[in-house]
Amino acid sequence: MEAFVQNFFNVSLLVDSIPSLLETGLINTLVLSLFSTVIGIAAGMVLALLMVSNVRWLTVPARVYIDVLRGLPAALVILLVGQGLAPVGLEIFGPNPYPLAIVALALISSAYIAEIFRSGIQSIGRGQMFACQALGMTYWSSMRYVVVPQGLRRVLPALANQFIAIVKDSSLVYFLGLLTSQRDLFTIGQNASVNMANLSPLVAAGLVYLMITVPLTHLINHIDRWTNRFSNPGVQNKKADDKTLAAGSTAAVALSGAPSLTDESGKH
């Protein structure tokens, strides 16, 4: 037990690892995750619109792309992009694999986000589209102004969950051999663990990951409760009507002088 604690929870090594993890690793992890998520959202929306269209030559390529990217391991996609597109990246970005890491993570996230958007769009009743057509709106204008905004509100928690997944997948970019100033949390923790022959720095990196993911998880739960409250006004109205009816009946009984239901139940 003592050897386990010394190898994974060496306090001095944990504390020594925190500055570099926060100053370099945390910033790079967030940059990788945010940029890849933003690009993934843009590409995912396009893919989702292609998926819900009635044109087969648009839906089939989108479905193939989504199935392939979701089916492949994230590490393999990062290697295929980072090393397979290295000559192209060298001409565009120079000897810097950082942009290719963002592209690889964006490709992964776009496939998952496309499915999230598709489910949100298809959760909107077809009556919405029929109403838009009755008003003379085209298919794409109906999607833009009516269907898609409603679908987006319903999938906000799922999008936040996908961002958490990208934060964790960003640990795989160490395959690409990033520069010292570009290393993410996992890479810094791994390198320190190898140099010190102790896994405590890697555990410290995991603690910083928890600093990102745990608050985000609670934020997602709050967003989910908020969206459910406003997306089900009928339930809220019914609860309010029930309370009003109960209060009204109690007041009526009190005015008539007859024993109320609560009084009768109290006697039993």
TrEMBL record:
Gene Ontology cellular component terms for the protein in this record: ATP-binding cassette (ABC) transporter complex
Superkingdom to which the source organism belongs: Bacteria
Compartments reported by the entry: Cell inner membrane; Cell membrane
Transmembrane stretches, start-end: 30-52, 64-86, 98-117, 199-220
Gene Ontology BP terms: amino acid transport
Membrane-topology descriptor: Multi-pass membrane protein
Positions in coiled-coil regions: none
Occurrences of domain ABC transmembrane type-1 (ranges): 26-220
Similarity comment: Belongs to the binding-protein-dependent transport system permease family. HisMQ subfamily.
Name the record gives this protein: ABC transporter permease subunit
Species the sequence originates in: Paraburkholderia acidisoli
